[in-house]
Amino acid sequence: MENTGNEIIIKSYSHGENDFWQLMGKYFASYQISKEMGNNIFSDSRYKWWLAIEKDVVVGFCAAIINNNGTAALCHGYVIPEYRNMGIYKSLFNKRLEYILSIDSIKIINATVTDISVKPFVKHGFRQIGIRGKYKKVRYEK
Known about the structure:
Blueprint: E1 8-14, H1 20-28, H2 31-37, E2 47-54, E3 57-66, E4 71-79, H3 88-101, E5 108-113, H4 118-123, E6 127-132, E7 135-141
Parallel strand pairs: 4-5
Antiparallel strand pairs: 1-2, 2-3, 3-4, 5-7, 6-7
């Protein structure tokens, strides 16, 4: 991957593909990020990832779990504090949603989100279906 200047690129990865673990390992191991997100970061063969990368350093990421039952779950959306309010989360969100919506077999998309991150979900047609602790559960149905 070639990147010049301060350009931030969004790159998608399947679970464990290419340099995924080299780029993401420190985030999986970060207690502080897990605490801020409200859960541990994990991945398996059902996951598809989108990474925001500047100069070969991940500055944000998000994932989707693609299930075999016609559902998907959007998860693990995070941008490091120094890069927030720059449109990175919006770019990650849009790339992830575009990909999931392109899969014909997926009819329901679920997510558990914070008050801060619920706005883009509602803007794209998700509706709140419940509450899980301090988080909101949202769903999109095709």
